[in-house]
Predict the structure of HTH-type transcriptional repressor GlcR.
Amino acid sequence: MLSHERKTHLLSLLDEQGSVVAKDVSRELGLSEDTIRRDLRELARDGRLKRVHGGAVPIAPANAPFPGRIGIATPEKVEIGKRAAAMIEPGHVVFLDGGTTAIQLARHLPRHLDATVITHSPNIAMELLNHQGLEVEIVGGRLLRHSIVTSGAATIAWLGRYRPDICFIGATGLHPDQGVTTGESEEAEVKRAVIEKSGSAVILASSEKFGAVSSFEVARWTNIDGLVVAQAASRKAAELFGHLGCEILSTNQTGSRR
């Protein structure tokens, strides 16, 4: 089997199964593990997959810069934003992460809601400008242009002052074995700090992130209380993540714990 044929086969397996184990493929094809690992390394170098111990998983498409992510799964993100906004109650102190799905959450908050929103995203703050009932706390720090959020030591120190009732966190990869991941190390640090300080942690989970992995861990599943997903993706989310102990929250249900 030629190199390009092997790589096509590997990508096909990845699409069908959600992961590739080098040992299993080498046995299937009657080739050495070194050959399969080399193919996986080359595919990873070309941005086609993400290498993990023993094999590979899909690479997260949401690693693109912010302007390029706006069009990804937009109707789904609107649905997720509406569902997440309905979880915020009067008097809540909420942390709202940056990202295109979080913007949809901000857009669907009731204008009269009396609550406090903490965010390190200038875009989120601008979305909430006309919500007269909301107190908006903007966390300072160094601006990451890729994601349009603040980050760094100043951001972490600032966040140490807060104890949110609930935080809504974005991610670029959600994998049942590899956990919640993102593509920027400093963003991962901020997200971890927020989750640690919050009463509950909820992931805004559009389906293109299911099964994908990025380079930096945000949290293991034991630290996540819920995933907000679109109705059409709720069955898939339950299959992948329901057994991990977090609620699967969609527009057609209040939650399901497996």
Notes: The chain has two domains: 3-59, 66-256. The first strand starts at residue 20 and ends at 21. Residues 24 and 33 are 9 Å apart (CA to CA).
